[in-house]
Design goal:
Strand order of the largest sheet: 1-4-3-2-5-6
Distance between the termini: 42 Å
Shape: globular
Order of helices and strands: EHEHEHHEHEHEH
Number of helices: 7
Helix content: 25-40%
CATH topology: Rossmann fold
CATH class: Alpha Beta
CATH architecture: 3-Layer(aba) Sandwich
Largest sheet: 6 strands, parallel
Number of domains: 1
Structural class: alpha/beta
Strand content: 15-25%
Radius of gyration: 15 Å
Amino acid sequence: MNPTAQKIVRRSELPVMVAQWRRDGQQIVFTNGCFDLLHLGHIDGLEKARRLGDRLIVGLNSDASVQRLKGEDRPLNNENIRSRMLAALEFVDVVVIFDEDTPASLIAEVLPDVLVKGSDYQTGNIAGSDIVLRTGGRVELIELTKGFSTTSIIEQIKRLNE
């Protein structure tokens, strides 16, 4: 098995990992997204998220979930490609795919110490923020890297091909 593929876990495997990390006194950070075209904005955000704790779990929207959220022509890369690319990043400890439109139930299973999203969100609008705050965790909004978004990259490619 490829070393990066080992960092991609089934949802059912996550509780055992999280329990061990907690026994070891490690702070667990969770973030999520579609990560359709991995770009500098994603890298910056994931690095910032990882610095907020000892372990970084990335929840990845499944192909079906991305399609419901972004439209029929998305994702550009399937969940296997997207998860391998995320797992290849040294600061990502685990990638787990979820099929729902939001990661709220996955967050409720993990109960991270820190839930991270970009500063384009407001804490009250972040899926799972209520349960994280209720169980003693915190929500952190990280500054986005200006000029990088998958949608803007796709639009730029379309303009170049007109």
